[in-house]
Write a structure and sequence with these properties.
The chain has 300 residues and is of the alpha/beta class. It has a single domain, classed as NAD(P)-binding Rossmann-like Domain (Rossmann fold, 3-Layer(aba) Sandwich), CATH 3.40.50.720. The chain is built from four helices and 14 strands. Strands 3, 4, 7, 8, 9, 10, 11 and 12 form an eight-stranded antiparallel sheet that branches. A six-stranded mixed sheet has the order 5-2-1-6-14-13, covered by helices on one side. The longest helix has 26 residues. The mean pLDDT is 89. One of its GO terms (cellular component) is cytoplasm. Its cofactor is FAD. Belongs to the DAMOX/DASOX family. One of its GO terms (molecular function) is D-amino-acid oxidase activity.
Length: 300
């Protein structure tokens, strides 16, 4: 039996969930305040580095001490995959459209409103809550364990050396919640320099001093990225801030009965791991939808 599904949220988690549900033959509507192409701090997906977990690559290794810049105590490197989100998110939306998903703009005040937003004009028997950080204040959810993990980045046109497509190192940093990384996006998407991981910080504007620290650390660590010219050798495309949907205790992936007609499948709280976890969690959503649908049919 085909379900009438409304997915709330159009980030990578909501889009991937919608796609896999549509592939299973369900009628799917996506409702989102933000859509691919938008840039807003609370819409984290476009800002993400979107790299893949390194443990799946054979050439993952720790850096030797003589490979580290002064002041850095450890590091690791690998040749991985870094998604160009400016290409991937529209592609994912296109795949959804190809499989019959309908998109609507909407800013819901309560998760219950989603029941009546299916493009089919009937009550949705499944709501997928993929609102990320929005789950903190969304009526009917109001998850107090959610908080922003503020990430500030600098996107540059410079490409790192071939032996430095992505590198992260830990060190005694100048500011709380700051880290060092560079990720080269595919297909000419520039290189992301980071960054911050500042839980509870709601400042949506890039901080100039933080940006200077980010750039200085990168050119100290890898002078060749700027042609040996320091910060002056970096060709900046943009500065950006995104709020990762951090959740104390980890992500939430579970079903909840709303009423006799409708179930909610929660899929949020992925923090900085949304792209890595998107397909696995979307498969979990499909399994939960099948589970509650079977239970409902068994009671009829």
């Amino acid at each position: 039996m085909s379900n009438t599904v409304v997915v709330v949220g159009a980030g990578v988690i909501g889009l991937t969930s919608a796609l896999l549900l549509a592939k299973e033959g369900n009628s799917v509507t996506v409702v989102g305040k933000h859509m691919p192409g938008d840039y807003d701090a609370e819409y984290a997906s476009p800002w993400a580095g979107a790299n893949v977990i390194p443990s799946i690559f054979n050439n993952f290794r720790d850096n030797h001490s003589d490979e580290l810049a002064p002041g850095y105590d450890s590091g690791f490197q690998y040749q991985g995959v870094c998604i160009n989100t400016a290409i991937y998110l529209p592609w994912l939306l296109g795949q959804c459209l190809k499989h019959g998903v309908v998109f609507k703009r909407g800013n819901l005040k309560n998760i219950n409103e989603a029941k009546f937003l299916s493009h089919k004009g009937r009550v949705a028997n499944i709501i997928v809550n993929a609102t990320g950080l929005g789950s903190l204040k969304l009526g009917g959810v109001e998850d107090s364990t959610m908080a922003p993990s503020r990430g500030q980045i600098v996107v540059v046109r410079n490409e790192p050396p071939k032996n430095f497509p992505l590198l992260m190192c830990s060190s005694p940093l100048d500011g709380s919640g700051e880290e060092v990384y560079a990720m080269q996006r595919a297909a000419g998407g520039g290189t992301i320099l980071g960054g911050t991981y500042d839980i509870g910080n709601w400042n949506s504007q890039p901080d100039p001093n933080t940006a200077l620290r980010i750039m200085q650390r990168i050119v100290d660590l890898c002078p060749d990225i700027a042609g040996g010219k320091g910060i002056a050798g970096l060709d900046v495309i943009r500065h950006g801030v995104g709020f990762r949907p951090w959740r104390k205790g980890g992500l939430r992936l579970e079903e909840e009965k709303l009423d006799d007609q409708t179930w909610i499948i929660h899929n949020y709280g992925h923090s900085g791991w949304g792209y890595m976890e998107s397909y696995g969690c979307a498969e979990g959503v499909v399994e939960l939808v099948d589970k509650v649908s079977e239970n409902t049919r068994a009671k009829l």
